[in-house]
Write a sequence for this structure.
């Protein structure tokens, strides 16, 4: 059973905090924040954000993740910060054990 | 050792001499005309597919898609996968003019080129273009802190520089009342990119300074009938006359920006203008997945769902995954995943199973499809619908060919394909639209380069060796492109001899599941039985 890594959550929240000024969003961003409904992102923007996250956590199976979102009813086609963090924690490359 | 002044690369996405020459002759583009007198020009033949992401990647790597790994806006996850991801700089599997120049200690400026996100750590500056969303441009700028510096420029407006809605309108069209603002927005967009370039040229100049103007492509898609003299209405309405003038204003403004950048680069600079592909008129749309369905190679998952998606224009999730849930994978052998690639993929597993499809079966399906495509006739004219069909081996030879489509199509009228279901296999648009062609533009001027010369056709992959040569950087010996001697004054290449260097170790090739598969007789019989049950073999 994987666990949500607090560092991943904080790292993604920090990334969003850095960007939110450019999005003209002045609300709080937390685990429950939705990318489309709350932050006003287009779906492609989430895809591009995913590419940036891969820089840090290695190749992740985002197409299957987006496929699952695309199959949802239109009103549920969104991603929360918590969902994204959970997905990253579940699929990121295992960190090599330190000697 | 660097042998000349700086190199200025101006990319004009989709530019064709069919459009530029008449504007030059009419006095709309005097700076371009002056540059033509100063330099050598020729047709620049694009690659398969003549499409922005793979084509610009070929220009900056000097390699074909099978060698650099980019085939489309979206990228197959791995050879056997039906999933596609957003193509990014992480997918470019080759050295580029940016990395090679940086490694040699040259400073680069790269503005608005695709596949530059996440930004590669070059020695210099990157502001990515392509499908870079404006809201995340901060993350795309290299080095860190650049975005904050650029924000202080009065004309810096990421929203107008990278508005994705403009992309959608270029392809899907827009109401007539929106055309004028749309063209005006492109005029401003090019000005804003040019302002960034001027600032960087003044404040932190590079040895290689490159900017790409992509409005040429967008305008030609939507407004071809106002741009191409051969397609303009004989008796234009007032609105059409206004659009002709507005498009002319775009090209006049673009010419002013080109002239200013060339002057700013200085008299010692090498100036290279290039397009990733050409353009021409088209009306046809080939609904390839519907054709595959009729031929028995594809099954839609749910006709109601497919019909609902017909109207979808959303990019992102929809573009990456539409085909995944639109198709019944237990009964699909061949499919087109994106309209842009103009390609057909044959699945690599026996439908409905995890068993790899034997290579000989795949090969037979591919050849059957290619033959059937070449037999297709246009329903209105009776002429062949396709000008050519290339197999993956013909189009994409190289270590990454497994990521490309198995078949690539060229429509006879230069038209597009659609992956959506349709009652008619071939649809005709009411209006002429512009679409990509092989014949792009090339123009180079500078010390030692022939003046007022028309040179033989060059390949898109020949641009990278020229740029590296002018930067005094060694040309890797694995490039597909060659330095074209016809561009230079006699003795120039002897005076400043190009230097070839061994290429860096190649990135590992992608494995193709099933390629080495040797089935036992009973396994092969089971596979064939499954295919027979599905109706794919007789």
């Amino acid at each position: 059973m994987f666990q949500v890594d607090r560092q991943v959550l904080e790292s993604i929240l920090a990334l969003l905090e850095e960007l939110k000024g450019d999005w003209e969003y002045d609300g709080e961003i937390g685990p429950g924040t939705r990318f489309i409904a709350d932050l006003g992102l287009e779906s492609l923007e989430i895809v591009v954000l995913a590419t940036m996250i891969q820089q840090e956590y290695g190749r992740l199976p985002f197409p299957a993740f987006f496929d699952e979102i695309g199959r949802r009813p239109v009103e549920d086609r969104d991603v929360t910060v918590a969902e994204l963090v959970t997905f990253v924690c579940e699929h990121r490359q295992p960190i090599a054990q330190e000697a | 050792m660097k042998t000349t002044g700086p190199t200025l690369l101006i990319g004009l996405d989709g530019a064709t001499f069919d459009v530029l020459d008449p504007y030059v002759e009419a006095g709309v583009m005097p700076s371009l005309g002056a540059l033509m007198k100063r330099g050598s020009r020729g047709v620049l033949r694009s690659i398969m597919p003549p499409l922005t992401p793979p084509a610009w990647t070929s220009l900056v790597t000097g390699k074909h898609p099978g060698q650099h790994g980019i085939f489309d806006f979206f990228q197959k996850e791995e050879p056997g996968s039906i999933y596609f991801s957003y193509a990014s700089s992480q997918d470019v599997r080759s050295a580029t003019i940016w990395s090679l120049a940086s490694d040699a200690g040259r400073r680069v400026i790269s503005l608005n080129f695709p596949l530059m996100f996440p930004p590669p750590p070059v020695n210099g500056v990157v502001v990515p273009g392509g499908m870079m969303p404006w809201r995340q441009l901060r993350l795309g700028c290299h080095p860190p802190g650049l975005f904050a510096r650029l924000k202080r420029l009065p004309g810096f407006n990421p929203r107008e520089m990278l508005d994705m809605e403009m992309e959608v309108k270029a392809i899907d069209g827009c109401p007539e009342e929106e055309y004028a603002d749309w063209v005006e927005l492109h005029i401003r967009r090019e000005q804003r990119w040019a302002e960034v370039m001027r600032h960087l040229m003044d404040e932190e100049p590079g040895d290689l300074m490159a900017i790409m103007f992509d409005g040429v492509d967008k305008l030609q898609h939507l407004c071809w009938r106002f741009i191409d003299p051969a397609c303009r209405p004989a008796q234009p309405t007032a609105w059409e006359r206004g659009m002709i003038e507005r498009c002319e204003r775009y090209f006049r403004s673009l010419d002013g920006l080109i002239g200013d950048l060339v002057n700013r680069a200085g008299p010692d600079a090498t100036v290279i203008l290039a397009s990733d592909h050409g353009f021409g008129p088209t009306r046809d749309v080939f609904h390839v997945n519907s054709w595959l369905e009729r031929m028995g190679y594809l099954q839609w998952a749910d006709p109601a769902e497919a019909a609902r998606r017909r109207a979808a224009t959303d990019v992102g999730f929809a573009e990456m995954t539409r085909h995944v849930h639109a198709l019944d994978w237990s009964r699909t052998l061949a499919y087109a995943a994106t309209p842009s690639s103009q390609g057909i993929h044959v699945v690599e597993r026996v439908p409905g199973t995890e068993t790899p499809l034997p290579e000989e079966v795949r090969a037979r399906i591919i050849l059957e499809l290619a033959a059937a495509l070449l037999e297709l006739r246009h329903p209105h004219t009776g002429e062949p619908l396709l000008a050519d069909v290339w197999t993956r081996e013909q189009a994409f030879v190289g270590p990454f060919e497994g990521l490309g489509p198995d078949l690539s199509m060229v429509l006879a009228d230069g038209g597009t394909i659609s992956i959506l279901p349709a009652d008619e296999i071939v649809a005709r648009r009411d209006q002429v639209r512009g679409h990509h062609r092989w014949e792009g533009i090339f123009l180079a001027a500078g010390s030692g380069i022939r003046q007022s010369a028309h040179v033989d056709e060059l390949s898109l992959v020949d641009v990278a060796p020229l740029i590296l040569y002018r930067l005094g950087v060694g040309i890797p010996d694995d490039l597909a492109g060659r330095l074209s001697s016809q561009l230079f004054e006699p003795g120039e290449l002897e005076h400043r001899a190009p230097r070839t260097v061994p290429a860096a170790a190649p990135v590992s090739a992608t494995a193709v599941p099933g390629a080495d598969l040797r089935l036992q007789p009973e396994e092969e019989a089971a596979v064939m039985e499954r295919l027979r049950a599905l109706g794919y073999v007789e």
The first helix of chain B runs from residue 17 to 25. The radius of gyration of chain B is 24 Å. Chain B has 20 helices and 20 strands.
